[in-house]
Amino acid sequence: MAEGSGRPVVVTLEGEKRNAFTYRLIEKLLGIECKDITVITNSGNVFSSGLDLSVFLQGRDAVLEYLFRIHRLVKKLLSCEGRLIAVVNGDVYGFGVEFLYFMDYVVAAKRDYKFSLQGVNLGVFPPYTAAVGRRLFAPAHLRVVLNREFTAEEAFHFGIVSQVGDLELKKLFSPPAYVAEVVSHRRWLVSFVDEAIPVFYKLAEVATREETVKRLREFFKKS
Question: One biological process GO term for this chain (predicted)?
Answer without folding.
Answer: fatty acid beta-oxidation
